[in-house]
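To the wet lab folks,

You asked to see what we're planning to order before we commit. Fair enough. Below is the target structure as tokens, and below that is the sequence we designed to fit it. If anything looks off to you, flag it before the synthesis order goes out.
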């Protein structure tokens, strides 16, 4: 999970209780020997394109119809 959320940056705003969360490719850059490989909770390795936000890849996996780990409502 750390690999999906390690490239997060934060920006302050004029509102004291507000913060912008964004993808920062400079943090925990892919190819870093100390950075963990992205693996989904079911053990499947994730394929990340260079510069792609890993949170988007994780969200797509989480919401995929074939994912049995996400509870659906009718």
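Sequence we intend to order:
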């Amino acid at each position: 999970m750390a690999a999906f959320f390690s490239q997060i940056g934060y920006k302050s705003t004029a509102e004291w209780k507000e913060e912008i969360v964004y993808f920062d490719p400079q943090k925990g850059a892919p190819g870093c020997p100390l950075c963990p490989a992205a693996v989904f909770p079911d053990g499947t390795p994730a394929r990340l394109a260079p510069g792609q936000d890993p949170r988007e890849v994780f969200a797509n996996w989480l919401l995929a119809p074939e994912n049995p780990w996400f509870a659906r409502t009718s």
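Structural context that might help your review: The longest strand covers residues 8-12. The chain has a mean pLDDT of 82.

Thanks,
Computational group
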